[in-house]
Amino acid sequence: MPSHPLSRYDGRLCVVTASTAGIGKAIAKRMLQEGGRVVVSSRKQASVDDALAELKPEFGDRVIGVVCNVSKADDRATLLKAALSFGDGKIDVLVSNAASSITIGPTDNCDDQQWDKMFENNVKSAWQLTKEFKPHLRRGSGVVLFVTSIAAFSLMSPLAIYGVTKTALTGLMKALAQELGPEGIRVNALAPGVVKTKFSELLWKNKGASELWSGQSMLNRVAEPEEMAGPAAFLCSFDASYVTGETLIASGGVSSRL
Question: Which spans are transmembrane here (predicted)?
């Protein structure tokens, strides 16, 4: 049974990509706790199975899992079909969380192939996913949320190209918010700071890195994945019904101006 005092997601169908670990799983779990029906996804079947083994004992048939590499058209089609079959033919919330960082360091460290792959994974796939899901998003109340990063606003030298892709994703969010607004569909972004996930181990796992990045936060620590779930749940809920085209920065106070 839901263990959260709020029930903002009762009867709502939510699709969260890259949601079998880290921030994505925390967001999916929060929406389940608030009464939603959730489709989780990952590129690997084993990851989907592990997530369902954790979530189903608590949430039962309100959660399903799908293998989906968002850069592959067939996988996106499978995800959409599964979501439509899971609900009433309409989708209430789409959270685009999938991303990659396949090059480390300054921009010169990135070759053309890596550049193209990162923009495909981090920007193009979010655009494609939204474009394909758009006809099925509930008019008047549908929501799209892009998970971006503080790296879109504040230079993080180990993640230069990653930050560029997230800045581009922020621009895409604003364009889509303007285009979908007349249909009553809101589009926003959540920009986490450094969060304790496998994806960001480079920035927090060893003591020196942890002290460096924690020191940039006014709270003097890195975040837990669950601390991103609340802001995401707010943005996708009716509590944020007049919020669109915005980025909520959850960075612990790290400087966040372009």
Answer: 143-164
